[in-house]
Amino acid sequence: MEEVSGNLIEKINEAVDFIKSHNVTSPRYGIVLGTGLGALVNEMKIEKIINYDEIPHFPVSTVEFHSGKLMFGRLADKPVVVMQGRFHFYEGYSMKEVTFPIRVMKLLGIEKLFMSNAAGGLNESFNISDLMIINDHINLMTQNPLTGKNLDEFGGRFTDMYEPYDFSMVHSGLKIAKELGIQTHEGVYAAVPGPNLETRAEYRYLSIIGADAVGMSTVPEIIVARHMEIPCFAVSVITDLCYPSAVEKIDIQKIIAAAHKAEPGLTKLITRLIGEQDS
Q1: How far is Cα of residue 201 from the mean position of the Cα atoms in its chain?
Q2: Residues 6 or more apart from 40 whose CB is under 8 A from it?
Q3: Rounded Cα gap, residues 69 and 107, in angstroms
Q4: pLDDT by residue (tens digit) across 166-198?
Q5: What is the chain's mean pLDDT, rounded?
Q6: DSSP category for residue 41
Q7: Regarding beta strands 131-139 and 184-191, do their DSSP bridges make them parallel or antiparallel, or are they unpaired?
Q8: Which end of the chain, C or N, has fewer beta carbons within 10 A?
């Protein structure tokens, strides 16, 4: 597992140059697909696929439910780049490795970032396979991707997090979901390191501090995107229920099945939202 160290800017540029050498169309929108949520690519007009293991300094996902492909093409007739499979801190990668692809996508030209993840539902109004548009987050991870020497080429030292998730896109996403009849909530996502699931006491704690859902991803990428002033939109699929009256021992196959059940609605939501962005 390669550690991203030394001259990080050089490594990012090497990855970008390699990708551009494949004559890809410059994307305007970046999409990161999470656990069990790969069906969006079926709606794409795919122009180019590059495997992660071909790209210099790119991490490779070790999670069995994740693909490892960078896909270029058009979604809702907009130029996009899609990460089919993401990286997690719990895999043993550093935070700079986890977020390395977001830096690369910025230099490829993306103007907005769209993400999805699987999460446990802490809000008692949530049901399995519901969607939750994230309107804020609580970062409980033990490290931060901005720790260390600041990359002045990308942004300032102290990144403002007043609006980690773009207010206008959150509003539009909720409106679209209502119009399409997709069961969707908005709420706060708590990010924890993983890979173990939480105890019952930890679930209670997360509810008390204001979280509506909990997962092990997304927040590092959002922090780095906001460092580069990229507007962000993120959705959690509620794959298991974690409030006291519903929590039970986890069955990973049930989680994957719940994510797959939510795929059609999530695909419609993100496709429509990207289609409504400025041309």
Answers
A1: 27
A2: 31, 33, 75, 82, 263, 266, 267, 270, 271
A3: 18
A4: 999 999 999 999 999 999 999 999 999 999 999
A5: 92
A6: G
A7: parallel
A8: C
Scored b (16 or more CB within 10 A) or e, 99-127 reads bbbbbbbbbbbbebbbbbbbbbbbbeebe
What DSSP line would sit under 132-183, residue for residue? Answer: EEEEEEEE--S--TT-SS--TTT--SS---S-SS-HHHHHHHHHHHHHHT--
Going 184 to 189 to 194 to 198, the CA torsion angle's sign is: negative
35 is written with which tokens? 């656990």
Residue given tokens 């709420």 in the structure block: 187
- Hey, which residues does 250 pair with through a beta bridge? none
User: CA 224 to CA 226: how far, in whole Å?
Assistant: 5
Distance in angstroms (rounded) separating the CA atoms of residues 5 and 97: 9
Backbone angles phi, psi at 60, to 5 degrees: -125, 130
Q: Within 10 Å of residue 151's Cβ, how many Cβ atoms?
A: 17
